[in-house]
Design a protein that fits this description.
Length: about 300
């Protein structure tokens, strides 16, 4: 393993940990998994290969937040876990959010952050109680839950940091999306960084078990530059080289595609928030508060 292995948004490298499926909730999880200490060291020194994709993702996710912000009491207090270069923090500030914070363990993206948001980023791994008595109206965690050793503990810690009427918004890969099934181990989501891979059922159970109310899970459509989508495909390097010869405007053209990502939303109170934005095809998914969940959670069917 080198600094590139745990870089965000890198090209597929055909490496993944041994994954086991939970027959109760459908989550895939790595066993054995790296220790939290090893992960902290790996992410601290990880490289960062592009900021363009992060900026594009930030715009998509900011649109999702716009869909729930109208039902919140105000826009005071937001935390983004796994914020990278802080592009999403900039989007929140532009939309009138105040007291915005970010957490990012990797040094490289923090160093690349724009001056106006760099001071808002804490260069550490998110941990329980790290903000003391400070509370947030919104906590987000985009494409990060797959990377943490204990996602249930993280979700519970986030729940404790929310203000009344607050919400936790998470985006993860859907391992059961048709394209990921077809590609199998060649899918970009089969990555050595991923300690678990969710499906709608397992994500809903996780959020319920962590104590959230009004849990919703839906597919989300992402928009990235054409060249980024090509990088993710299991194509020969020669194909990627050809794309680099395409004129810049076409290569940078934004393409909106549904590739099997899920948005999950949970609130502190029943009915406090719901996903009202266009997130992709498919109907809203709900699970019952009594359902089980993930790994250390009751997974009885």
């Amino acid at each position: 393993l080198d600094a590139f292995a745990f870089a965000s948004r890198k090209e597929p490298d055909a490496m993944n940990l041994r994954m086991v499926e939970c027959r109760g909730c459908g989550v895939l999880f790595a066993t054995p998994a790296p220790t939290p200490e090893d992960l902290a060291n790996l992410y601290r020194s990880a490289s960062f290969d592009t900021a363009d994709a992060g900026d594009a993702a930030a715009r998509t996710y900011a649109g999702l937040v716009d869909g729930i912000a109208g039902r919140m009491p105000n826009r005071d207090g937001a935390l983004d876990i796994g914020t990278g270069t802080g592009s999403f923090l900039a989007e929140l500030l532009a939309r009138g959010w105040t007291n915005v914070r970010g957490v990012e363990p990797s040094e490289a993206p923090v160093a690349m952050a724009r001056p106006e948001v760099r001071g808002l980023i804490i260069p550490e791994v998110f941990r329980d109680g790290m903000f003391g008595d400070e509370r947030f109206r919104l906590v987000t965690c985009f494409q990060t839950m797959e990377h943490v050793p204990d996602p249930l503990a993280l979700a519970r810690s986030v729940r404790a940091t929310l203000k009344p009427g607050g919400a936790f918004m998470v985006v993860v890969h859907d391992r059961r999306f048709w394209l990921n099934r077809v590609l199998g181990r060649r899918s970009p989501i089969m990555d050595i960084e991923h300690l678990q891979l969710f499906c709608p059922r397992s994500l809903m159970r996780l959020l319920h078990q962590a104590g959230y109310q009004g849990v919703e899970v839906r597919p989300v459509t992402n928009a990235y530059p054409l060249e980024y989508w090509v990088r993710l495909l299991p194509l020969p390097r020669s194909a990627n080289a050809l794309v680099q010869r395409v004129p810049g405007p076409l290569r940078k053209r934004m393409v909106r595609v549904s590739v099997g990502n899920l948005i999950g939303l949970g609130g502190c109170e029943e009915g406090s928030v719901h996903i009202s934005c266009q997130t992709g095809r498919g109907t809203r998914c709900h699970s019952r508060p009594g359902d089980g969940a993930y790994l250390g959670i009751d997974c009885k069917r």
